[in-house]
Amino acid sequence: QTKDPMMQHEYSGWENYHREQWSWDKKTRGTHLLNCTGSCPHFVYTKNGVVMREEQSKDIPKLTGVPEYNPRGCNKGECAVDYQYGPHRIKYPLIRVGERGEGKWRRVSWDEALEYIANGIVDTIKEEASDCISVFTPVPAVAPVSFAAGHRFASLIGGHTHTFFDWYGDHPTGQTQVQGLQGDTCETADWFNGRTILMWGANSAQTRIPDAHFLQEAVLNGSKMYVISPDFNATATKADVFVGIKPGTDAALALGMVNVIVNENLHDIHNLKEQTDLPFLVRKDTKMYLRESDVVEGGSDAKFYTWDTKTKKPVLMKGSWGEEPEKKAKLQPGFMGRNTFTFPDGYLDLGDLDPALEGTYKVKLANGETVKVQPVFEVYKPKLKEYTPEKVSKITGVAPSVITQMARDFAKNKPSMIITGGGTNHWYWSDTVLRTFILLCAVTGNEGYNGTGVNHYVGQWKPTPLLGVVKLSFPYSPKKHRFCQTTLWTYYHGNVYDAMENEGIDTAKYLRESIESGQMPLYPQNGRDPKVFICYRGNWLNNAKGLDYVLRNLWPKMNLTVDMNFRMDSTALYSDVVLPSAHWYEKTDLSMTEEHSFIHMTEPAIKPMWESKPDWEIFALLAKKVGEVAKKKGFTRYFDEKFNIARDLTKLYDLQTDEGKLETDVQACQFILDNAPQTAGITLDMIRKEGPQRFKSNWTSPMKEGVPYVPLQNFIIKKKPWPTLTGREQFYIDHATFFEMGVELPVYKAPVDADQYPLRFNTPHSRYAIHSTWKDNILQLRLQRGGPMCEISPADAKARGIRDNDWVEVFNDHGRVIVRCKIRNGEQTGRVSMHHEPELYMDLIGDGSSQSPLPVRLNPTALVGNYAHLKFKPNYYGPGGVQRDARVEVRRYTGSVTV
Ligand code: MGD
Ligand code: MD1
Ligand code: SF4
Questions:
Q1: How far apart are CA 535 and CA 530, in angstroms?
Q2: For ligand 1, is residue 881 a contact (CB within 6 Å)?
Q3: Could you tell me the distance, in angstroms and rounded to a whole number, from the CA of residue 35 to the centre of ligand 2?
Q4: I need a labelling partner for 219 at 20 to 30 A (CA). Which of 41, 140, 346, 673 fits?
């Protein structure tokens, strides 16, 4: 027997090196505060004041009957510490000395930098107006305290802040149209409960890394997963069936499935009658809903009828917009079109009523006229009949047998769910796509129960304790705050050419109507230009569609651009002043996501490095400096007529910190927890000691102990009205713009072909970066080709004489970007994808990013703001950033590049 020669060895000196690596003198809580949808709790280990490593905390409480969330993390998060110590770190305040984007800086003191910014702010208020000042900072679910810092500041000076959920293309516009909600989804543990799972336009194995295991576990447990995507993506490798669809044709596929389901009588008639507007009557003469005001003198124009098959009479449906709950709703939650939660349970119950879904009836109007009316379903039937599997197959490229099988599985092998993502949500007509997905669920009764629903995880959009975040962000109330709709702002001030005339759509006309009638807000008002732009926690120039228009037309309008960051990203590079922000392991903040139902925190493992400071502190210091500069300039007070507020800049610091009660980020965290019912009773200390805490309540369903959260139970199970015009899931929208666009009902609209180029341009999310973050991380770069690239099919490459790894130019009339080319078998012919795009600072050629060939395209349906639940509220309704509807050409690039 051989003896281990090392047995007797005493570890000392260098041999102890690795063992020492695994020891620490401090362990703190940490997470990564960016829009990755993960929100993974970590522990951070520190020794002698140096952060050694991070590791998943593995202490999310377990739910019952489903696999656990632990451990949660991804390849990027485990490199977070690199941004503390890496070469990217911004160490000191900087003021630009060269041209914007040139990268020439002067190191300055905090005092000088703040004075520079404060001068710009005070001069702008004095010479222009406070609404010329913009603050862009996204996603309150991630770091709500940092988020609130800039919103609070903007609120107090009368500036405006930007929407982001819509601008990022993440807002589920179709869900707001049908359900009157900003959105709500099941937490990902519930994926395990789906028996039929349609992974539709999302690539969870790559973009929901901490949660992808639930899908594989579901499949192992007998569930059937379809992956519907044009490319054979990472998630498709785990699918039972891969459905290779033509880009942008998903609505046709969904309607083909509905067609099969209805033809085979697999539809859930009770659900349609009780929960949807499909039995509501529509006038044949005007195509408008039959309203009480049509039938009764002095009747409401927001109460609607159905045809009762028992009494053979039109009967008013309960719960519509024209009805007030007995107990009046005090609060209007930001995620709902109206507050219907104070209606009693069971309000939508049909009782003896049997609404007709089909037929044509006659109704006598108040003016004595008799008109023909039909239920919405009857109006819809001829359209639905067009979507035969054979016809849909021609549009989508999916075989009729697959469409039929998928439809049967979805209707019969229940519970069934759709998981959807950017692949279907980033299109011009993504609203109609989502309406068809919701229809599929409503038609089969797959909503409101575990394992069901259309689940949309595009963006980390859900700050569950919303009230606390709102109170911290808007001290005068959100009603006294200027919210700027970012897509519209960029389109308008960037003077973007969208080429939509080629599609017969006059965007300018709809835009003018929307702005002039106050349906969508445009800031600054009174024809002024934006002058000051403060950006932090977001890389606006990297996520800006229409980048070339932005740099050419919008950016030069700014007298002052400021970025606060711990790394030099594209926006920082093009700024006048850059302020060093503390890293996630150097400050206190909270984190949450729609992907799970827990709140947790990050806290300082070490003090902010170099001269960096937490965002909360930076805005407090800026508030103080603005007060000082205002005094020096003798301009301290102004009257904000819009909100009737007398503003005094010398009081700004006291207001920003609420007289010292909100001086630190720790106080601000606790303020949020204390001021929302979902987190009442939870303290920061509890999170620190016990780990992530489950929300006490939630948005559209109750929380049940041990059970994964699913949304919509207040409507489906408790039968309260939906927050829409009709009080139901509303598929018919009788608004002029919807008629003009031909989308009063959910139909298939072909992707936009306004650009006369052969290839569709797809810009999905990368496995090796979270948006622009980590694109520059050496370890992530080593896991791939090491730089920006696009991917095309072998056939497209061959046709263009392109070899693997060639430099290519991806271009159209809007702009170009130059990257290397990867030839990928899994890519569909006719499309080019770019997962890894260059940032402006990567400077390969010196111009362009993936946003250069993408104009900003506003869909007129999202400019509507005068239709009951379709109205502007920040991140609730407004035009989205359309980033898939562009066509490009790719050709070899033979000029010189700097690598
Ligand atoms: P994408 O990656 O844009 O969306 O991530 P996802 O929701 O997964 O696209 C998903 C798939 O849809 C791709 O395979 C794409 O080719 C396909 N697709 C494209 N066009 C179509 C189409 O017309 N029809 C169908 N059916 N499929 C199509 C985005 C999500 O990821 C978001 S929004 C955020 S905020 C997070 N970002 C992020 C990240 O940047 N990096 C990583 N690693 N994870 C992330 N998670 C989140
Ligand atoms: P964002 O994140 O927020 O700028 O971009 C998100 C955006 O890309 C999103 S969510 C979507 S879905 C979108 N997708 C998309 C697409 O698929 N295709 C196309 N063509 N366009 C698209 N457009 C949008 P990013 O890039 O990670 O930048 C975050 C920056 O914030 C810094 N940072 C911090 N800064 C401060 N002050 N404090 C912090 O705590 C902090 N944490 C991160 C970070 O360094 C980075 O520069
Ligand atoms: Fe961090 Fe997000 Fe990755 Fe989770 S998914 S480890 S929070 S970067």
A1: 14
A2: no
A3: 7
A4: 41
- Is the Cβ atom of 579 under 6 angstroms away from ligand 2? no
Q: Which atom of ligand 3 is nearest to the CA of 42?
A: 6
- Distances in whole angstroms, Cα of residue 234 to Cα of each of 40, 194, 657, 721, 762: 21, 20, 47, 40, 16
Q: Please, are residues 43 and 687 in contact by the beta-carbon 8 Å criterion?
A: no
Sequence-distant (6+) residues with CB within 8 A of 234 are: 203, 205, 206, 767
The Cα 68–Cα 71 span in angstroms is 8
Distance CA 233, CA 242 (A): 9
Q: Which two tokens stand for residue 534?
A: 């403060």
Q: Two tokens at 634?
A: 């003798």
Q: Report d(CA 553, CA 544) in Å as an integer.
A: 13
Give the ligand at the shortest distance from the Cα of 762: 1
Residue-level pLDDT at 9: 61
Nearest-angstrom CA–CA distance, 466 and 698: 10
- In angstroms, the first-to-last Cα distance of the chain is 57
The residue whose CB lies within 8 Å of the most ligand 3 atoms, and thus the one to mutate among 33, 204, 206, 209, is 209
Q: 654 alpha carbon to ligand 1 midpoint, in Å?
A: 43
Binning pLDDT at 50, 70 and 90, where does residue 231 land? very high
Residue with the two structure tokens 């129960």: 449
> pLDDT, tens digit, for every residue of 49-107?
999 999 999 999 999 999 999 999 999 999 999 999 999 999 999 999 999 999 999 99
What would the mean pLDDT of 118-126 be, rounded to a whole number? 98
- Closest by CA to 511, choosing from 498, 524, 526, is 498
- DSSP assignment of 176-245: HHHHSBS-----GGGGGG-SEEEEES--HHHHSTTTTHHHHHHHHTT-EEEEEESS--GGGGG-SEEEEP
| Region for 318 from its dihedrals, namely left if φ exceeds 0, alpha if ψ lies in -120 to 50, beta otherwise | beta
Residue to mutate, 250, 430, 765, 832, ligand 1, most ligand atoms under 8 Å from C-beta: 765
Q: How many Å apart are CA 420 and CA 312, to the nearest integer?
A: 41
Nearest-CA residue for atom 17 of ligand 1: 423
The least confident of 8-22, 165-179, 322-336, 417-431 is: 8-22
Quick check: helix, strand or coil at residue 407?
helix
Q: What is the token pair recorded at 886?
A: 């562009």
CA torsion sign for 77, 82, 85, 89 is negative
Contact (CB, 8 A) for 377 and 747: no
ipTM of the complex: 0.96
Minimal CA–CA distance to 584: which of 37, 210, 42? 42
Distance (angstroms) between ligand 1 centre and the Cα of 460 equals 13
- Residue 864's nearest CA partner among 176, 248, 165 is 176
Q: Report DSSP letters for 81-146, one per residue.
A: THHHHSTTB--S-EEE-SSTTS--EEE--HHHHHHHHHHHHHHHHHHS-GGGEEEE---TTB-HHH
Output the residue whose Cα is nearest ligand 3's atom 2. 38
One-letter amino acid of 756? Q
Backbone angles phi, psi at 251, to 5 degrees: -60, -40
Residue located nearest, by CA, to atom 8 of ligand 3: 77
